[in-house]
């Protein structure tokens, strides 16, 4: 068994697609119209057949309070592996990305937490 798909709830699929591709560097895998929304996934360009991230609309009534509670408590909705947290922090900061947590070493891992502009905190991590 392996992870095929994970999702992050977003407040605007177009804005999310731009952020996750143009800023974070993922590539679009699938875009299928589903009424007012789309089945919209992105993947790592390093593993195009790997785990997909679904940019899922946050329209369900339970989602917005859930997202707000996570952000309020500083809890990331997802975690992405990077080769160098400090380098990604510098690159993304240069692109205007806001960080809720600057790079921090925590034992065998280094993490940072960014705002995805779509209502979520996302952790980047190296090590572990």
Topology (elements, then pairings):
Blueprint: E1 5-10, H1 13-23, E2 27-34, E3 37-43, E4 52-57, H2 63-72, E5 78-81, H3 85-94, E6 99-106, E7 109-115, E8 121-127
Parallel strand pairs: 1-4, 5-8
Antiparallel strand pairs: 2-3, 3-4, 6-7, 7-8
Features:
128 residues, alpha/beta, four-stranded mixed β-sheet, 3 helices, globular
* Low-pLDDT segments, ≥5 res: none
Cα-atom radius of gyration: 15 Å
Distance between the first and last residues' Cα: 22 Å
Beta strand %: 35-45%
Task: Let me know the number of strands.
Answer: 8
Order of helices and strands: EHEEEHEHEEE
List the strand order in the largest sheet. Answer: 1-4-3-2
Overall geometric form: globular
Number of helices: 3
Overall pLDDT: 97
Query: How much helicity do the residues have?
Result: 10-25%
**Largest sheet descriptor:** 4 strands, mixed
Structural classification = alpha/beta
Summarize the structure.
With 128 residues, the protein is of the alpha/beta class.
Can you offer a commentary on this structure?
With 128 residues, the chain is α/β, with parallel strands linked by helices. It is built from 3 helices and 8 strands; from the N terminus they run βαβββαβαβββ. The protein has a 4-stranded mixed beta sheet with strand order 1-4-3-2, with helices on one face. The longest helix has 11 residues, at 13-23. The two termini are 22 Å apart.
């Amino acid at each position: 068994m392996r992870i095929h798909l994970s999702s992050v709830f977003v407040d605007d699929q177009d804005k999310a697609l731009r952020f996750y591709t143009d800023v974070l560097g993922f590539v679009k895998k699938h875009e299928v119209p589903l009424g007012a929304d789309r089945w919209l996934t992105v993947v790592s360009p390093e593993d195009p057949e790997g785990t997909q991230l679904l940019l899922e609309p946050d329209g369900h009534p339970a989602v917005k309070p859930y997202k707000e509670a996570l952000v309020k408590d500083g809890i990331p909705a997802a975690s992405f592996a990077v080769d160098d947290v400090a380098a990604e922090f510098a690159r993304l900061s240069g692109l205007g990305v806001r960080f809720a947590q600057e790079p921090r070493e925590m034992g065998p891992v280094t993490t940072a937490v960014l705002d995805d502009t779509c209502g979520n905190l996302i952790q980047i991590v190296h090590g572990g």
